[in-house]
């Protein structure tokens, strides 16, 4: 799949070559090809399937934020978890993330939902499943993506440089349960979805805690404030 003209940073291509050569990835590629042949619309676009990895090289990862599935509405997903292009309505979970940023750091909510600037600074915005069919939530689960993104997390876990893992919700916490918390900072809370945000998401100061940990280890903190004019895809 990595050879199909899809953008992928070389550091990840090398680290994940065994995964790309595995039978399960060949099966996943065949599944996606069949879905396209059947006329189904898949999001994000093919060149953006590995966008999180392309924007955040392996050696640059300082923070990992885990999501589950891409947004399944037309034009929403663009390869980064919780993120949408400028001009797309900000999803409810991201609105709550912005509320927490305001409470934690005093950063006013952005007028858009494009988190590309975080990714370019070393925040790996990784969904567990990297594709979805239009209007069909969770439609590409259990076809191989989960195994692939487990390998991505394992690669980060093995890095010598300490990393901050922000795990919102039980799904993310189970997926990254193997992360070595003696070396990395693991921040856990409920998901920012309106269904669960008020049961433990707010008030945990994820962003300031992440930056304090990075500074403590001699690493550059993240500028969480998003630019008014985000990078266009």
From TrEMBL:
Q: Which SMART domains does UniProt cross-reference here?
A: UDG, UreE_C
For this chain's UniProt record, which GO biological process terms are given?
Answer: base-excision repair, AP site formation via deaminated base removal
Give the subcellular location. Cytoplasm
Gene3D superfamilies per UniProt: Uracil-DNA glycosylase-like domain (3.40.470.10)
The keyword DNA-binding appears for this protein = no
InterPro entries xref list: UDG_fam1, Ura-DNA_Glyclase_AS, Uracil-DNA_glycosylase-like, Uracil-DNA_glycosylase-like_sf
Chief site of localization:
cytoplasm
A GO cellular component annotation here is:
cytoplasm
Q: EC?
A: 3.2.2.27
Functional note:
Excises uracil residues from the DNA which can arise as a result of misincorporation of dUMP residues by DNA polymerase or due to deamination of cytosine.
Protein name in the entry: Uracil-DNA glycosylase
Source species? Acetobacter aceti
- Tell me what gene encodes this: ung
């Amino acid at each position: 799949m990595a050879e199909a003209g899809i953008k992928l940073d070389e550091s990840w291509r090398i680290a994940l070559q065994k995964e790309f050569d595995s039978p399960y990835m060949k099966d996943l590629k065949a599944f996606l090809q069949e879905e396209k042949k059947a006329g189904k619309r898949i999001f994000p676009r093919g060149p953006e399937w590995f966008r999180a990895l392309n924007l955040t090289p392996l050696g640059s990862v300082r923070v990992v934020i885990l999501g589950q599935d891409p947004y399944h509405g037309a034009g929403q997903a663009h390869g980064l978890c919780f993120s949408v292009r400028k001009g797309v309505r900000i999803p409810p979970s991201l609105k709550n993330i912005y509320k927490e940023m305001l409470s934690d750091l005093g950063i006013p909510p952005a007028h858009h939902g494009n988190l590309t600037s975080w990714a370019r600074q070393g925040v790996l915005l990784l969904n567990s499943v990297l594709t979805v069919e239009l209007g069909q939530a969770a439609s590409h689960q259990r076809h191989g993506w989960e195994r692939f993104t487990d390998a991505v997390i394992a690669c980060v876990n093995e890095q010598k440089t300490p990393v901050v893992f922000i795990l919102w919700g039980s799904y993310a916490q189970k997926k990254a349960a193997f992360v070595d918390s003696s070396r990395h900072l693991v921040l856990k809370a409920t998901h920012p979805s309106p269904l669960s945000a008020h049961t433990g998401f707010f008030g945990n100061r994820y962003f300031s805690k992440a930056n304090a940990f990075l500074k403590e280890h001699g690493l550059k903190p993240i500028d969480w404030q998003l630019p008014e004019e985000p990078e266009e895809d």
